[in-house]
Amino acid sequence: MIAVSGKGSGRISIAGLVCVRAGHRSRLIYRTKVHRGRKGERRSFAETDYAALLGAAHHQLGGPIVLTWDNLNTHISAAMRALIAARDWLHVIRLPAYAPDLNPVEHV
């Protein structure tokens, strides 16, 4: 943990993918989003942010992705389901309703 001084500096959200492939080194691909608390500003990642992260991971890894995901409301929204269905290189496995021990990114 890093102490940061200054009032009202905002909040940082991080979305990450732990990428594992047999015979290759593992990777952590992530994106950050700074929330300054401005009126009307979204306080979390949107479907478009996750789409950009997944697209970047697909481009960087150069192959299909099997994604193990929790049941965060943004992960299971209608917009995200449509986004997943439109990508033939993406297969999503859903975790049970509450399973932080099964999600390796929770500990990063």
Automatic annotation (TrEMBL):
GO terms for molecular function: endonuclease activity; nucleic acid binding. Keywords: Endonuclease, Hydrolase, Nuclease. InterPro entries: RNaseH_sf, Tc1-like_DDE_dom. Signal peptide: none annotated. Residues 48-108 form the Tc1-like transposase DDE domain. This is DDE superfamily endonuclease.
